[in-house]
């Protein structure tokens, strides 16, 4: 498979995103209990996600599903991979910013 090393990196980053999403979603729960965090979605449609949620985990799940489809595909177009990596980077950056904004 031509993208073996890239797929390994993606898998590692998805695991990181999953762990961070759980932590950040718990923090969102705390903020909601305090009367904050009254937004509808974390990401806008133009950021590439089809999911619309006020939690991080559904976005991670969307990326995992896309990644599984790419791994099961016989051919992955470079453009498809590029769009996926941009979405993953957006998610990881947003998780990091949220995590640091205590």
Automatic annotation (TrEMBL):
Name of the molecule in the record: Prephenate dehydrogenase
Q: Which organism is it from?
A: Shewanella metallivivens
**Highest lineage ranks of the organism?**
Bacteria, Pseudomonadati, Pseudomonadota, Gammaproteobacteria, Alteromonadales
């Amino acid at each position: 498979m031509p993208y073996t090393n890239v797929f390994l990196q993606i898998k590692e980053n998805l695991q990181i995103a999953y762990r961070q999403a759980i932590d950040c979603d718990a923090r969102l729960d705390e903020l909601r209990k305090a009367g904050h965090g009254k937004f509808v979605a974390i990401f806008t449609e133009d950021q590439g996600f089809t999911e619309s949620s006020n939690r991080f985990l559904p976005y991670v799940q969307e990326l995992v599903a896309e990644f599984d489809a790419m791994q099961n595909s016989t051919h992955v177009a470079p453009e498809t991979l590029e769009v996926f990596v941009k979405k993953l980077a957006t998610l990881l950056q947003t998780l990091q910013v949220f995590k640091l904004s205590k």
